[in-house]
């Protein structure tokens, strides 16, 4: 009893209720995520335009598609769990089945929590990106986390499912769809980031004549600095190559001034091969 893992501070007879509560909580978190994305979409249309609006809409649309795919996966997973319980409990109650298979039940609870948490984090990251207070990389990481957590949920559900189960086949199809939608979020985020960075770098439409002239002078200074630095690096590269040629020519003991030292005379009693003449 002492060696049993204490991963959950609840009684085993409460595991069944815990599973249902977690799956319901996950579904609620996903529904809330979809609503928040719709609100962000409306806000983005009111507060942005041009390239930024296009980028925000593309990212939020991909996030919406991902949330819908996750919602379908959670629903299918719930149906599969009910099927597993009905086919495996026999004369036992649902609570007794979950208690008897506590490890499997805990895995379902953990996977469900991970999916709900990933969906929430994705929406928060998308919100910060739309408001220009977050990083695009956060969205990419959240997409990877969601793909990993859905794979965990599928694996936990698959353990006790019959191979011929239709719900299992649907769940695996839903998992592939989630991975595809997560990849779309990553792709839209990367392309949007490139568009925004390019626009911010090359958009001079809102500058006055004086501001343009100042930017032009500052850019000229940077160009001269980079050219000077480039010339210095070329000189350094030449010296490195020159020293490399000296060492490759066999003058291992050559001093820094380039003059070779005479080879030390061999000690009496020790026979050595005569030095090989170096080619010019």
Automatic annotation (TrEMBL):
Keyword annotations? Coiled coil, Cytoplasm
An example of a Gene Ontology BP annotation on this entry? Answer: clathrin coat assembly
Stretches assigned to coiled coil = 207-243
Q: Which GO terms describe its molecular function?
A: actin filament binding; clathrin adaptor activity; clathrin light chain binding; phosphatidylinositol-3,4-bisphosphate binding; phosphatidylinositol-3,5-bisphosphate binding
Where in this protein does the record put region Disordered? Answer: 250-280
Q: Where in the cell is it found?
A: Cytoplasm
Q: Does the keyword Coiled coil apply?
A: yes
Q: Which PANTHER family does UniProt cross-reference here?
A: HUNTINGTIN INTERACTING PROTEIN 1, HUNTINGTIN-INTERACTING PROTEIN 1-RELATED PROTEIN
UniProt name for this protein: HIP1R protein
| Annotated organism of origin | Dasyornis broadbenti (rufous bristle-bird)
